[in-house]
Amino acid sequence: MVSEPLADRGVAHRWRRQELFLLSCAAFIVGCGLVVVDLSTVNHVQAVSIRLLLAFIAAAVLIHVAIRRRARFADPFIAPAALLLAGIGLVEIHRLDIAEQVQAITSGQPVPVARAPLQSLWAVVGAALFIATLLVVRDYRRLQRFPWLITLCGLALLLSPLVPGIGHTIRGATLWVRIGGLSIQPAEAAKVLLPIGFSAYLTRHGRALALLRSTVAGLPVPRLRDFAPLLVMWVASLGVLIFQRDLGTSLLFFGLFVVLLYASTAQRSWPLIGLALFLVGSLIGWVLFAHVQLRVLLWLNPFRGDGTSQVALGLYGIADGGLFGTGLGQGYPSLVPFAESDYIFSSISEELGLVGFLACLLLYAVLAQRGLRAAQQSRDTFGSLLGISFATVVALQTFVVIGGVTRLIPLTGLTTPFMSYGGSSLVANLIIMGMLIRLSDSVRAPRAAFKQAVFSTGPVPVTSPNDATEAISIVGGDS
Amino acid sequence: MNALILTLMRFGFLALLWVFLAFIIVMLKRDLVKPVTLGATTSNAKVATAERKKRASVPGRITVLDGALAGTVITLTGPDVLFGRAADCSLVLNDDYVSNHHCIVTRLDDMWVLRDLGSTNGTWIDRSRVATTTPLKIGTVFKVGRLAMRVDA
Q1: A307 phi-psi bin (left φ>0, alpha ψ -120 to 50, beta other)
Q2: Fewer C-beta neighbours within 10 Å, C or N terminus of chain B?
Q3: Nearest CA to A56 among A355, A426, A428?
């Protein structure tokens, strides 16, 4: 890094200036949002809103300074897009707090605890862990050394709520682990570990899986033993579905593995096989579980009965929002159960309308695109797969949640990345962002530093072909 | 609250969101339009492009034809391009037939030349193994192990 040319420093400075500018815009938008919510509901700016904005700015400053210090060639769009999404989520959670407080006061019940301050605290904690990620993972390539260890840790975390004593069931889904007074969702940590494990595994074994032997019905089919990893993932996903009753998580990780299989082998038969296995799994879920049947029936006919199912209420909200929304603070998003977590996107579309909804969707698209871009620029297979897997985790979650809320697919419980209320989810997503920043920093950094590393004896004096061959054979002798 | 102010705030907030997106998209465009340049800093790339316009006969790019990186284009600019399996190579080829540091394309006066770095499976041009420093011409196809690369203008 000592010898890098001035031009490279200029590029890094431009990227960091862009990032600072976009982060300032994001903070301004979040500030405006909080003020609009307060003015339209309680007619004055509350002290809590100022505290929320300060916490948001603190998180943004921490993240920006960390990138400047430790990853200055990183992509300048990842952090602003992610933080603005987190900020919009914070504004909407604050708005739902006010709605609940007003309702409690009018009905004479005790005022519930506000959730937005807690969420803003988690954002700061997440920023601290983002910095820790950048400090611990200095070279992303080191992560590929322990594919099995990382995958097993991820799967163990995923299944840890099943351990009696610490596991905790809320609303039928066994997703929480309670340690002390703190409930955490270990599946969120698995969203960080499993992509790393899958990428590392497929970097080593992807080539073997790309070998195809036989042809069935005009389609090349892999060897039987190459099915093993996919089948293991399929069984694990079914396990999550059966024992934890969590459709979303099981779908997310199986989908991720199939996407990575396709990305690393470029064989079209893998997605088709994955789809077939998914259909079989869905059928098993349908036959065995009433809650899966209920989800599907509500998807096909949300307005049956008295029309007050969660899906129906969410759709009423979205319809009420229309094109431009009711305006922040002027809708009734709190009528939908879990409006702050699973259904935050219906709250957003009610108050910001289709126009605001599409803006948020585009921010997710930017995030996913930047992940894929880093994957495309990476020079090694592991880096590419890592970029693809994190982009897929964000994109697939968004698709499953928003698809469920808008009734494109049956509703499955997953958190909306960055936006939903929930500490585990926000922190895990900020760590994922840290990984993407680290990856994009490595792939975008100029090659000057690399060249120094290869020719550690200094620049090769290329005077005549013979001299040069001798000089190079010093470094080339280890092949 | 005044209904007019409420309406202004309602549309103002949406406008802010889209202005932010417009900023991102304008800034992104530069990154998307610019092709993938390996082995060069921006300033080197500019100099190299200018030189290339002067002499159209000098190779300017290498296209990977086989393997996982098929379709990747490496722009020949200032520094050398090192092919191999090791992580410090310019192009990391994850293939069983490629050695850690397999071969290198480097600049010699006005030419780009190819050298094998003592690889196990060899670097090949037209079924003959590259033993000495070989100048690269436009249209040459060389094989790193079993992966073909084409030299383009």
Answers
A1: left
A2: C
A3: A426
Residue A18 corresponds to which amino acid? Q
For residue A280, CA distances in Å to A273, A276, A283, A408 come to 11, 6, 5, 20
Residues A392, A409: Cα–Cα separation, whole Å: 18
Bridge partners for B124 per DSSP: B129, B143
Q: Can you say whether residue A43 is alpha, beta or left, with left for phi > 0 and alpha for psi between -120 and 50 degrees?
A: left
Q: Which of residues 222 through 241 in chain A touch B, CB cutoff 8 A?
A: none
Host H or E run for residue A212? strand A212-216
| Cross-chain CB nearest to B14 (options A356, A366, A369) | A356
End-to-end CA distance of chain A: 27
Q: Give the closest of A353, A447, A479 to B117, CB-based.
A: A479
Distance between terminal CA atoms of chain B? 67
Amino acid, single-letter form, for residue A144: Q
DSSP designation for A111:
P
Separation between Cα atoms, residue A60 and residue A31, nearest integer Å:
13
pTM: 0.78
Distances from the Cα of A17 to the Cα of A10, A77, A131, A348, angstroms: 10, 11, 19, 30
What is the least distance, in Å, from the CA of A36 to any CA of chain B? 7
B112: Cα within 13 Å, side-chain hemisphere? 25
- Average pLDDT of B54-72? 76
Strand B123-125 relative to strand B141-144, pairing: antiparallel
φ, ψ of residue A71 to 5 degrees: the values are: -150, 60
Q: Which residue has the higher pLDDT, A391 or A12?
A: A391
Query: DSSP 3-state assignment of B114?
Result: strand
Do A60 and A22 touch, CB atoms closer than 8 A?
Answer: no
Residues in a beta bridge with B98:
none
How far is C-alpha B138 from the chain's CA centre? 17
Give bridge partners of residue A220 from the DSSP assignment.
A215
Query: How do the domains of chain A map onto residue ranges?
Result: 447-479
Is B84 part of the contact surface with chain A (CB cutoff 8 Å)?
yes
pLDDT higher at A278 or A244: A278
For residue A21, the chain B residues in CB contact (below 8 A) are 23
pLDDT at A157 over 70: yes
Closest Cα partner for B149 from B101, B98, B108, B110?
Answer: B98
Distance from CA of B133 to the nearest CA of A (A): 6
- Contact between A150 and A82 under an 8 Å Cβ cutoff? The reply is no
Question: How far B58 CA sits from the closest chain A CA (Å)?
Answer: 19
